[in-house]
User: Fold these one by one.
Assistant:
Number 1:
Amino acid sequence: MPRLWNFLDLSTPERRANPALGQTPTEFSPNEPSECLCALSDWGVIHVHGADAAAFLHSQLSNDIQSLDTANARLAAYCNAKGRALALLRVLRTDAGLLLFTHKALTDSLIRRLRMFVLRSKVTLDDVSEAIGVIGLVGAAARPPLQRLMGSLPEQVGGVQNADEIRLIRLDCVPDRFALVVPGRLLPELWARLANTLPVVSSEAWRLLEIRAGIPTITPATQEAFVPQMLNLEPLQGISYSKGCYPGQEVIARMHYLGKLKRRMYRLHTQTATAPAPGEIVRAGTGGQEAGTVVTAAQATPESCELLAVLRIELAEQNSLLLNGAPLQPLELPYSFDT
């Protein structure tokens, strides 16, 4: 766990002095409406600032960054020249620049790569993962303490409410799901207050909620494996086709205007006591033909898990699917696709 979250470590003096800080994650009940709190310690945070910060990111990411204001956050992909995703990010504008949220394991490599293209632009990129924490909150019980803290809540998905140095991003509407972006020095006290209101759950429980929302995650195991359309970034509004050039733009635009998408991301369920790792292979039941790749997975019950996987469309819709020999059942995603 990052040092920022050390106050949750059971062995620290802070935790021993204030048990509420380190409330043990409760068992997640996936079949009932959930109200919970989660330390999103696997979220890396990059601060991009300088006079050219927005223009620079606009030229690097799949979404429109120039028009982004402080009242909204956007999903975007950072791709290589072949249009394959190196990272998925949530982008948030602040008065001091822009914040990029991505999987923490990718933060260092992402900063190094982006710095290669700064050239003469007035842009600085800093890893602030140890200075800014993100708390996940879910459910109707989260609304009253958040309203007291923020004054009001963003009602649209992607909406942002700002209160001094704290920012609240609306992630979903059903259920209510938020990400609270907090300076590190305020994190222990704010966590203790919220932990007295909501049960604390593990990062795997949060990952399950992301899966049910159809939100993909790129990890080191799946870097450069998918173009953004395969990850459903079109219905998730993570691609702009009118913004101009960025790495991989030609491939991504050609897929949109001239090509036919042969793979896309599906939500699935399987009986297993161990969730599969990102990058594991899904096979078609007849003959064991490779059908696709696991993007992310999480336990839903001790005996079953849910996952997102990018699959060949013709195999996903015409064949039974297997993962490590166990059957996969399709589940609905909360968004639709253009036909």
Number 2:
Amino acid sequence: MKLNYKEDWPLYLIVLGVITMIAKEAVEVVLTPSKKMTSETNKNEWHQPSLYLDNELKGADREMVLYGENLIANTSYYFGPHGTIQPITNGMNCQNCHLQAGARAWGNNYDAVFATYPKLRDRSGKLETIASRVNDCFERSLNGKAIDTSSKEMQAIVAYITWLGHTVKKGDKPPGSGITQLPYLNRAADPGKGAVVYAEKCQTCHGNHGEGVAEGSGYGYTYPPLWGDHSYNTGAGLFRISRFAGYIKDNMPFNQASHQSPALTDEEAWDVAAFVNSQPRPVKDISHDWPDISKKPVDHPFGPYADGFSEQEHKYGPFQPIADARKVK
């Protein structure tokens, strides 16, 4: 039967309406679970407090917090090679590793620091304060010297970190804090494959030789050096590739990736972390770290170890066999 478009237009409308309803139902079935999951994640995720909306922070306390934020964002101006207070670091800013002055979710932020410090750390075997943890970064990630814990600068940094995490309950570590722990690969991370990822996704910003891009002001880096004399040393937390891989996955390429929308696969993140950490960098004496060697993380790249795995395996993996062996014990 041939339909007359002018006379049978109501029939066309009915058919179109049915098709639209079926399509809508199908889309909802497919999308609702992921929407719900994303909604729940965002609901529980830590969100930074706002200095502009905090009307209770006033006077000298507010000035200290603001100064602390400035020190985190512009560390090199105060403590870099040409530092106005002390020339004692490699020239990077704290926020080169702790994004957005330590306030970005999934960006190695400070949100759970106040909630979890003081605490006994296995790496030092000691009870550490926020100030001692900050100096750890000065000596390792900034490859410099510790600053006076009674100084105005340290007090300001501690005040800022404390304020940033003041809404987090003591002992809590909400989603979005620190760095993501990626699932282990079923193979060793591969620096060779990572070199390819670096060339395609990283060297535009960080340079052919990992040298980074210095700020025009002469203080700090727009894109930090990833290896070489001005990068973090072998005692830094990011020299463990599990830490670096998780950081890369959620944040790199910079401002092109996020936890919800990563630009790299897990394998790419592990491999490029392995490549970067296979490059030359300053060496730190860590002979006093991990007094109980059985507490070393599976990816701590320096022996001795309490297990039968080699330094090569502890640096690049595969890590699951190491983790499984520890469970047996």
Number 3:
Amino acid sequence: SFLEPVLTHLRLDPLDRGLQVFDAMEIGAQHHPPLDPDRPVLVAQLYGRQLASDVKLTLLNLYPAEHPLTLIQGAGTLGEKGWSVPLFELDRDSNLNDLTTLYVPPLSRPSGMAALQEVVARLRAPDGCPWDREQTHATLRRYLLEETYEVLAAIDADDRDKLCEELGDLLLQVLLHSQIAVESGEFSSADVAAGLIAKLIRRHPHVFGDLDVADASEVLQNWEQLKAKERGEKDKIKGQFDGVPVALPALLRAQEVQDRAARLGVDGSSQVELDRRIGEALRQASATTDPERREDAIGEALFALVRLTRMLNVEAESALRQATARYVAEFPADP
């Protein structure tokens, strides 16, 4: 076996941190490596530059470009040699052959999902954090919403460092809910992942199957048809909005309802018609003295305005959020 001489060359104990061993062809065929970045990896039979390029592109989905690697060639033979390269240079060596093995060391700090789940489980353990231990699905609702809006704020600010941080905070909420579910025997994070994987594959037959689609619009229409079929409500319009959360902010929910209606092919209003409806609703709101009729008219105007933003390829929620931010920024300190 090539393992013993390679491990001897690296002075590596395979049991120390849980060695992972893969064939280069298997890694190169993936889009994301099936690896735990907190554990060492050996990639065997890295026999050429094209394969090394495929492996490099896969590893770059998990490791930084500068991550130090070690190549071992001819381990256990008289011609044994080893040399180091950063990940981004992996495919620049023309001397790779069937006896070349790649060593990928762990990242410098805990970074894998398993490590993160261990931290969350430790927080919820009997000797963990009192605050984390007393949380439930219900008590975490506000934090899930807050972290979601923090992510949106980072996106609006075009702050990539902040976005990375806030996505971590949002991921924490997902893992906390999963850990709570494990403890109560409801489901596990593996169940969450398995359900999502199956759903994504099932609803993307144009990627994982043999369905042909013309463009993104056709993808969305097919997505809605598949969802309807899964619900056992194929070809029915009634109930198609059941999956749109009632708890969404009103503007966001209006846009989601209209997006879904458009994907179902039942939203054929023209821009001229929408302009007319908005103007008419605003005139009715101004003319009436009845509070309920005024509220209805304003609601109709807002709903039609959301439909107009869809037609103009503008996200209503984002547009309003940015307009509010501009107003706050321009508001005088001493009005």
Number 4:
Amino acid sequence: MGLDDVTVKPHERLAAYLADDMVAVNALIAERMASEHAPRIPEVTAHLVGAGGKRLRPMLTLATARMCGYGGPYHVLLAATVEFIHTATLLHDDVVDESGQRRGRPTANLLWDNKSSVLVGDYLFARSFQLMVETGSITVLGILSNAAATIAEGEVLQLTAAQNLATNEAIYLQVVRGKTAALFSAATEVGGVIAGVPQEQIDALRDYGDALGIAFQIVDDLLDYQGDAGATGKNIGDDFRERKLTLPVIKAVALADEEERAFWKRVIEKGDQRDGDLEHALALMERHGTLDATRADALRWAARGRDALERLPEHELRDMLFDLTDYVVDRIR
């Protein structure tokens, strides 16, 4: 089940509640992605931004700021900042992964070239820093700049860890915190910072974003092995074919006997994949219960997210964030 396959859609309720703010965010994105001297910048950016997406990360910033009683203009600036950082990472990721499709459309590196994708991504990172500086908050600047550095660090770590059987769950979690959860937690934390709420509430918002991001990525990795391709937009076993060590495989390697470990070494480390290998990999994961164990991990992280929300005052938006947390993991129940 994908995020669009149920009647009740928490991210759509959130979008409806924040509709006016999101109009302002989209207008600001369109304004700031312009370039007087390099027309390719808005061409490339518009291609990716126009492909859609749920805008979940900027909505988290808007929602947490509103939930904390913020009434100024800077939540819009920060939501646009978060989306610029996210879009920049997507442009870079597609080059690193040699991807040909994103959100059902050809990637920018395929339509233009790798150089354009990398340089436009760099431009969006620079724009994001210009935006965050406009808030005048050194705390906000610290949170988002640290997130940007953590994202880059996580991507580099993944390069060395993704095809190394020595990668364990602690390293996997470090990668996930970098590539996914860092921006989720920064997006939620800055909403509380600009609202000026007490530090314990800011900590709760950060913990919520961290847990939500980790649960989100674990679910995504699990669906690669047992999701509906029509709903997820991915074929079963894409990560396996790309030799990515994600959590279900890491758990299987940890429990493998000598023969099984030789199989994982051949297909992941050496990239020698043959007919029937995916089916054998799935059978090994079933034998050791690693798909169920991965599902349990995702549910535990979702529960941590809900626990963090419990530390915040009651609010209609808090209830929506509860529902969103359940929604992320409902795909694997």
